[in-house]
Amino acid sequence: MRVEEPSVDENARVDALRRYGILDTPREEAYDDLASLAAQVCGTPVAMIGFLDTDRVWFKSAVGFDVTEMPRDKTFCAHAVVAREVLVIPDAAQDPRFSSNPL
C-alpha cells in the first residue's frame, strides 16, 4: 500500500511519542472509557485508541477488536498522519487504498 509523504516532521512526532512513555503500557480504564464512548457516539461496533510508531500502530485501548498492534502499512493511521486535510473514508470496502485492509 502506497502512503503519501508526511506533512509533519515524522522524526519529531515519533520522538515526542516515545518521550511520553505510553507505548506498550498496560490498559487503563480511562482510555477504555474513551474508546467505548467513541463507539457509542459514532454508532460503530469498533473503536480504538492507537499510537502510530515508526513501524506499527499500538492500540492502548480497543472496543470490538482484540489485536494490540498492527503493522503501520496496514492501518488507516498511516494515511491520516500524512494527509494534508482531514481524512474521510465513507466506505473502506470501496476505497482502493483500504478494500483489502484487515480492519
Provide a brief overview of the structure.
With 103 residues, the chain is of the alpha+beta class.
Output the keywords.
single chain, 3-stranded antiparallel sheet, 28% helix, 3 strands, 103 residues
Overview of the molecule:
The protein has one domain (1-103). Strand 1 (47-52) and strand 2 (56-63) form a beta hairpin. The chain is globular. The model has no long low-confidence stretch (mean pLDDT 88). The protein has a three-stranded antiparallel β-sheet, covered by helices on one side. The protein contains three helices and three strands, in the order ααβββα. The protein has 103 residues and is of the alpha+beta class.
Instruction: Outline the biggest β-sheet.
Output: 3 strands, antiparallel
Mean pLDDT across every amino acid position: 88
Which structural class should the secondary elements be placed in?
alpha+beta
Basic shape: globular
Question: What order do the helices and strands come in, and which of them pair?
Answer:
Blueprint (H helix, E strand, L loop, with lengths): L9 H11 L8 H14 L4 E6 L3 E8 L5 E3 L5 H4 L23
Antiparallel strand pairs: 1-2, 2-3
